[in-house]
Amino acid sequence: GGPASLSRFRGALVAAVLGDCVGGEFEGAEEVPMESVLQHLSSLDDETKGNGILEYSDDTAMARCVIQSLLARAGFDEQDMARRFAKEYSTSPGRGYGSGVIQVLKKLSSPQLNDVYQPARDQFNGRGSFGNGGAMRAAPFALAFPALADVKRFARLGAMLTHSCSLGYNGAVLQALAVHLSLQGALDLPQQFISRLITEMEEVEDDKASQNDARILKEAEKPFCERLHRIRDLMSRSKVSIEEVISELGNGIAALHSVPTAIFCVLHCLQPRESLPENYCGVERTIAYSLALGGDTDTIACMAGAIAGAHYGIETIPQPWIKCCEGAEDADMDAERLHMLYHKSSQVD
Ligand code: R7I
Ligand code: MG
Ligand code: MG
């Protein structure tokens, strides 16, 4: 489809859910042989399974809250979104939430709470979380707002409801930017795609809070920009091993060690790869490759899935995968509603 087509919206939301659901199998595993990944994925084609047997985790649970809030309020409303996070957690606490964020979600359900951003600020001795929980649910912001400035602003605020450390919320901004660009067809020119992300993140990381956090956590001056440069270096190499990707970019629960990794997975899988089945389409390659990295597989595959799905569109995604994953059909319907919201707001502008 063309830029911002319905097919791209559907692809983005559905592939994110698939990444989360199929990635759950390997979350936290140190080494994941590609053979095990392919075995897991081929079991999804077994027709006797299906009907949502693979449950989604916190990644999708929170993304669904973001989507429902953006739709219900026709824009960003922090009170409404915070309430939905809290309610979702209290209804289904067993979705595999990060151990820190649970405190925030409990505080967000208090009726006495004045400032919905305060619980997040209290995390980790007042520095806030740098986990990838803000980034894992950032894709819908790119599907709700056509203007780049809005995507950046609201992805950041949406993440800050639980992640007040800049290394957490800037990861969410990067993820939303990647989905935004992919929706426009920017992955047709991968070098320019990464250059544009660097240009945008140069500005995003150019503020006092980001500089402060980077210094305290002993990271590069602009940590996400530095990682994007590493991606560019990896892209220029003819062969890159899984071990190199993990050591250069990481596969962990911190946004800094997972958002750039997810972006790399998408870029690396734009063309067929020897280690992956020839009949795989782009979304299948991207998800399979993300799982083979091990570590935070559900989240990396979820984020990579959103970016890849926005590029390839819904048509290439295998139907049996959708049938197997809880929430994938809901995501498909939500995509249509977000598509309408997006195009409505671009007319008003
Ligand atoms: O970021 P968050 O929502 O977790 C998301 C992850 C995804 O992989 C999901 O699939 C789910 O499995 O969890 O939750 P947080 O609790 O805010 O952060 C996750 C973890 O990162 C924390 O439990 C800590 O181990 C670590 N972490 C920190 N550790 C030390 N200091 C995050 N911030 C800090 C910190 O400032
Ligand atoms: Mg999860
Ligand atoms: Mg995870």
Automatic annotation (TrEMBL):
GO terms for molecular function: metal ion binding; poly(ADP-ribose) glycohydrolase activity. InterPro entries: ADP-ribosylglycohydrolase, Ribosyl_crysJ1, Ribosyl_crysJ1_sf. GO terms for biological process: DNA repair; peptidyl-serine ADP-deribosylation. Belongs to the ADP-ribosylglycohydrolase family. Monomer. It is found in: Chromosome; Cytoplasm; Mitochondrion matrix; Nucleus. Binds 2 magnesium ions per subunit. Its main location: nucleus. One of its GO terms (cellular component) is nucleus. Gene3D superfamilies: ADP-ribosylation/Crystallin J1 (1.10.4080.10). It catalyses: alpha-NAD(+) + H2O = ADP-D-ribose + nicotinamide + H(+). Its cofactor is Mg(2+). It comes from Scomber scombrus (Atlantic mackerel). Its EC number is 3.2.1.143. This is ADP-ribosylhydrolase ARH3. Mg(2+) binds at S57, D58, D59, D296, D298, T299.
